[in-house]
Amino acid sequence: MDETAPMSTDPLTAAAQILCRSTRVVCLTGAGVSAESGVPTFRDAQTGLWAQFDPEELASPAGFQRNPGLVWRWYMSRLAMVEQAQPNPGHRALAQLERILPHFVLITQNVDDLHERAGSQRVIHLHGSITRFRCSQCGAPYQLQPQDREAEMPPVCRLCNGWIRPDVVWFGEPLPPEALVQAWDETGQCQAMLVVGTSGVVYPAAQLPVVAREHGATLIDVNPEKGPMADLADIFLQGPSGVILPQLVEKTIACRGDQHET
Ligand code: BJW
Ligand code: ZN
Fold first, then answer.
1. Contact yes or no for 249/222 (Cβ under 8 A)
2. In the chain, what are the domains?
């Protein structure tokens, strides 16, 4: 494609042109990207048994201290959902972007492993992983046992008797330093940032699009709802990521094809 060609007035085509012209692209994902896999988003969906509880209370050290059994059962039910879920067309489209673009890094706030299962290789997890466990006191890693899944209380650490907890980042806890440094570094260097399925209210993750923009990157937001990220973005693609992202990949491939012909 001609570098000097004018930007399309169609937002999807314009977004593809941006991706196609960028040598470094970062994608920041949130819970919305896994919604179409049947994994409830963090804020939209406290369904069934869990509807009466505040997720921000459950995902906090104070909440765990107050009621370790409740928090454990919540995580076991979410783990079962994640394990049953399959990557959706949105996850697969992002894995495809990594293969077709020269430098593409995915930064996710999600604790599921659906990006990896879809084939993404360069994934930075800012909020840890729901499939890993550790002692809440001494930090020793813990291998989940079949009986733990149905237990009313968390297992205890055999080294220090502390409660075992999921290896995720709760409110008030620091993010994994290596992930945070890498995320900041990639963000500061990218020319385009694709923001997908996040409400953009949790920091420091929500700061990354701001940092990208300060460094001159173009922001593209994909979300069915208009939120703080849409206001910040240069291009807002409204709709579910499982629908929008495959279309965006198709147009990016077409654009790259045109580029190679000229
Ligand atoms: C679709 C869709 C479809 C639907 N397609 N889209 C600065 C200002 C104010 C506060 C703070 C600040 N800095 C720090 C704070 C405090 C706090 C914070 O941000 N609070 C805010 C609530 C105000 N941050 C922290 O505490 C962080 N730690 C920290 O800062 O530590 C400092 C420290 C340093 C040194 C020592 C000690 C401390 C930690 C934040 C950890 C967040 N953890 C959680 C839980 C993880 C484990 C778990 O999952 O259980 O992470 S909270 C939760 O929110 C989870 C998510 O990753 C995160 C973001 O949510 P996300 O992904 O945006 O989901 P939703 O549900 O909010 O939105 C879904 C979106 O999808 C919506 O927009 C839908 O429209 C959309 N959607 N269907 C595309 N089909
Ligand atoms: Zn321990």
1. no
2. 1-39+87-127+174-262 (3.40.50.1220), 53-84+130-168 (3.30.1600.10)
